[in-house]
Specification:
242 residues; mainly alpha; 10 helices; 71% helix
């Protein structure tokens, strides 16, 4: 984890400040753009808070999953020490980036509550549940992709292209209830919609988010984790010594 901190952000200008600047800039831009078109967000009175509750858990998932997926390639030289395993590399990068994103989310949400009259009230359990689902899903997907990126190098680029629309279809910009029934039924199978719904329920207790199914997200994350662990255990050493 210390090596990851130094090599990923410790030597770049600004370092970890960029992890904070990126979500602030994105939320500010979304808030400004949509405030020009609408009088009020779909929930509450603060555009900044509404988009933060969608953008922050989405970015946690996106950043942690992608960083976890490239952990083995990034830290492969450390395997020469012998005591480290492939899982150690994945777990260290996952934990560091998860803690970074959680800290960023806490700072951004805290700043919004301090600076704006949001008229919202936090419900800690649903809020924690939403971020925990995002983290668990990111771990499972990152673990599986850690194998797939090694086994099929072209898959990394295909994955980046295929997942670009996720930002639009994961409830960052709108609510599940705002969608037509047929589209809502289809997007229910996107686990990130459950994540953003749970986080918004934690910030807007009056918002029911009845469609959220934590069991679905946890089960999916468990399946991805088990598959990733199995593939890395069976074929990981072969791939890194090719």
């Amino acid at each position: 984890m210390l090596r990851e901190m130094v090599t990923s952000s410790g030597r770049s200008p600004g370092g970890y400040l960029w992890a904070l600047i990126e979500p602030i800039a994105a939320i500010a831009l979304l808030s400004f753009a949509f405030s020009m078109a609408f009088r009020a967000p779909s929930l509450g009175v603060s555009f900044a808070l509404f988009y933060a509750t969608g953008y922050l858990p989405y970015m946690l998932f996106h950043d942690v999953a992608n960083k976890t997926a490239t952990a083995i390639r990034f830290s492969r030289p450390l395997l020469g020490f012998g005591a480290l395993t492939l899982f150690d590399l994945v777990a260290a990068r996952f934990l560091l980036n998860l803690l970074t994103q959680l800290l960023v989310s806490a700072l951004v949400l805290g700043a919004i509550f301090a600076l704006f009259d949001t008229r919202a009230h936090l419900a800690p359990l649903p809020l924690a549940t939403g971020f925990a689902m995002a983290a668990w899903l990111a771990f499972g997907l990152g673990l599986l992709n850690a194998y797939l990126f090694l086994a099929f190098p072209a898959w990394e680029r295909l994955w980046q292209v295929a997942t670009r629309p996720l930002f639009i279809v994961s409830g960052v910009l709108f609510l599940y209830e705002d969608l037509p029934a047929k589209i809502a039924d289809l997007l229910w199978y996107n686990p990130l919609f459950h994540v953003t719904g749970a986080v918004r329920h934690g910030v807007y207790p009056g918002y029911g988010a009845d469609y959220v199914a934590p069991v679905f997200v946890v089960g999916l994350g468990l399946g991805l984790s088990c598959l990733g662990l199995l593939l890395l255990a069976r074929h990981g050493n072969e791939l890194i010594h090719k």
